[in-house]
Specification:
Elements (H helix, E strand, L loop, with lengths): L1 H4 L3 H28 L78 E5 L2 E3 L6 E3 L19 H13 L7 H9 L1 E3 L5 H7 L6 E3 L4 E5 L1
Parallel strand pairs: 1-6
Antiparallel strand pairs: 2-3, 4-5
Helix pairs in contact: 3-4
């Protein structure tokens, strides 16, 4: 009010004119929204006289359906007999029984990781004292001591796919790997290895699982 009191007569008239123009503009916008009937703000405000229903039209487009997996032929089927003694619709007698095969594909309820244990033989040279270790194609070079227990290539591949292909953050990858495989792993303490491999298998703990022993 103090600001208006300091204005001249002409300035007050200009304020009234500006407010009237703004009120008319707001009224026009309200009327436009009413005509849209609650349509989105980006709507053009016009409706098609005969709008078509959304979705694919019957009989048009390329259709696919899931086929029976290859493992279905090797899986023992579960018998599902008809429990009704007569037709549930009209009470009539039921005819000869026929069979149709249906399948449900799922992952194991509790995946059990396969642990391979190697009894690596070590010998010491009697002349120079150098230790010689047994070699195996599935044992990495330097896999001993603090890094003796590692995860296999399939676990590492899964971690890399989650991170690099699907964009899962590194901090969430171990939890997802554990949920999918039952293997618990932590990030390694070596900064270089953590940077190069994303997840280091140096520190791995396993749940209670059967052990597959292999010796050279």
């Amino acid at each position: 009010m103090e600001h208006l009191d300091s204005l001249s007569r002409e300035e007050l008239i200009q304020v009234i004119v500006d407010q009237h123009r703004m009120i008319e503009q707001l009224r026009a916008e309200i009327e436009q929204l009413k005509r849209r009937g609650g349509a989105a703000p980006f709507s053009k405000g016009t409706r098609k006289p005969e709008p078509r229903p959304p979705g694919r039209k019957p009989g048009q487009g390329f259709f696919r359906f899931r086929t029976a997996p290859e493992q279905a032929a090797e899986t023992e089927g579960v018998e599902v007999p008809v429990a009704a003694r007569c037709c549930p619709g009209c009470g009539g007698a039921l005819g000869k029984a026929r069979r149709e095969i249906v399948t449900t594909t799922d992952i194991p309820a509790k995946p059990q990781p396969e642990v391979r244990r190697y009894a690596v033989e070590t010998r010491e040279c009697g002349k120079c004292g150098k230790k010689v270790r047994g070699q195996h194609p599935e044992i990495a070079v330097g896999q001993q001591g603090a890094t003796a227990h590692r995860v296999g290539p399939r676990i590492r591949a899964l971690a890399h796919i989650l991170h690099y292909v699907h964009g899962v953050p590194v901090r969430k990858t171990p939890a997802i790997v554990e949920d999918l495989t039952g293997v618990r792993l932590t990030q390694g303490a070596d900064p270089e290895r953590r940077r190069m491999q994303t997840l280091s298998p140096d520190k791995v703990t396993y749940a209670s699982t059967p052990v597959v022993s292999r010796t050279r």
